[in-house]
Amino acid sequence: MGGRVHEPRMLADPPPAGTAEAWRARDLAVLWHPCTQMREHPDLLPLVPVERGEGAWLVGRDGRRYLDAVSSWWTNLHGHAEPRIAEAVARQARTLEQVILAGFSHAPAVELAERLLAIAPRQPGRPPLAKVFYADNGSAGVEVALKMAFHWFRNRGEEQRTRFVALENGYHGETLGALAVGDIPLYRRVYAPLLAEALFAPSPDAWLAAPGETPVQRAAYAADRLADLFDRHPGEICAVILEPRLQCAGGMRMHDASYVRRVRELCDAHGAFMIADEIATGFGRTGTMFACEQAGVMPDLLCLSKGLTGGFLPLAAVLATQELYDGFLDDSRERAFLHSHSYTGNPLACAAALASLDIFGTDAVLERNRATAARMATLAAQVGAGSRHVADVRQAGMVVAFELTRDGDRSTPFDPALRIGLRAYRAALERGVLLRPLGDVLYWMPPYCVDEAQLQLLAEATATAISESTSCA
Predict the structure, then answer these.
(1) Does residue 226 sit in the same domain as residue 265?
(2) Does 231 belong to an annotated binding site?
(3) What is the pLDDT of residues 77-130, one digit of tens each?
(4) Is position 32 annotated in a ligand binding site?
């Protein structure tokens, strides 16, 4: 249909069965990979068949070991094949693997909801989050939160409340509702005709601060523009959605916690809901259990996924206030929240999540992470100082990012045709480290079990990757 047809690559002599090369061939014959231009495989973009995981390591079919510096898309918390979570899943599988959650219940779903509500962010003078709705993944969790916010106002007769406010450079997933409140053109542009129209407020991103402007001042400026947006659309906005403290897919861009407080205040002043997307930032990534805690605020809807199960199984949870929940109680089914997923509250996934939460207690994870983050800061500063092309080194807890620009000049990004990020990815992979840059931003987001030797390897591989990828500039 209007394009060249590419025949499958034929191998004259098939590689021996079971080898890494054999698995690559089998993969490319049948799989369509996510977030990938498949034309780049296998010549430009390496394809790594993985046999198993061990702590912070991924072990390839060829026996090579790769430090998982991105926690397998930010999901893995305590390490691959963590035995306590694996045993919890196995134990649950021998008892109950799945049951419909409409009209039925099971212990793991109830216990997990109780524990999530117990550790959720709180705010003085505000009733705590009170109900948990399960979904299957982060994008689905965002869809749930958006629909709840819109539907709640509709049930009240406020049918003019149809608009969502999101932040420029934000990302909330790739289903159509989540894309509508995202602002990354690479993902959004093609599907724009299918998307609801959101309102976008300036990002509080400290990277965008004007010369001499502090992160706090940048946050205040962005909050003032959000206030202007509310004033221009009185009574139309049902919710503001944001990633607190850290815009992840937008380049690991970070902002001051004061912005999150202002969002809470503005939502209260204008009668709108605050939706906190902590799918990537939750469960200790930014230094506290949830990033909202650093602002001392509680959202009306809290979206969780990724690290929720320690990286073992897909699961999302949306935590809501009692007030929001009560807005759906009625004799009419149309006023009920009828959203569903076949695997809602899957017992295996809930068991994994419970085991992951247990580890936070037994291993003092947050306390240990503080020491690890301090060591990451020292190593990151050394990496940044060693390259003239590093324009910024920033950190939020267990997340470190390196912004690469030509000669470190903030106003001079690299020509996208140079594919600096891809070059860095390949260079790091050659040295046994999995980095997955976001454009020309390299970042570290390792599992919490990462040790000193692994951090040293990470720093050395990153420094080499930066040097080799920018040598063409």
Answers:
(1) yes
(2) no
(3) 999 999 999 999 999 999 999 999 999 999 999 999 999 999 999 999 999 999
(4) no
